[in-house]
Request: fold
Amino acid sequence: MSIDYEKIKNLISILEENGLTELAVEEDGFSVTIKAESCSETAHVAHAPANPGAQVEVQPIEVIMGPLVESEAKPAHLVEILSPMIGVFYQKPSPDSPPFIEVGDEIEVGQTIGLIEAMKVFSEVPSEIAGHVFAVPVENGKLVQQGDILVVVDISRV
Reply:
C-alpha cells in the first residue's frame, strides 16, 4: 500500500490548526496516528494495518516524508525500496562501521542497503534497482513494518 502524502499533510494541518496533541484516522484497513510532541511543534506519524491492540512504532514525520512532501505527486524518477519484512532496520553492519549507503551514493542492483533483524536473525536487504540514493527515511535501529520505505532512489541519474 502506498502512502498518500497529501492526506497526511492535510491531517497534520488539522492537528496544528486545532491545537490537538494526537489525531488518529482509520480508512480502508489502514490507520494513521499523528502525535505532536509536548516540547516542540514537531508532528509524528505511524502507520500500520488496522488491528486492535497492535503495537505501532512512531517516527518523526520529517523523516518519513522527507523531501517528497514538496510536490503533490511523487516524481516518476524517484523509486522507493520497501521493507520486505517486519523487524529492526540497521544502516550499518556494526556500530563502529560506516553505513551501507548514504544520501548521494550510487547504488547497484543487489547491493546491500541495510540489515533487518527479526527474531535475532539479521537479513541483508539488497537494492532492487540502480541509481543515486535520494533519501533514507528510516532511522537506524528503528522498527519497520513490511512495506515501509527504507530508501528512495533517483533512477534518472543512472
Remarks:
- The chain has two domains: 1-66, 75-158.
- The mean pLDDT is 75.
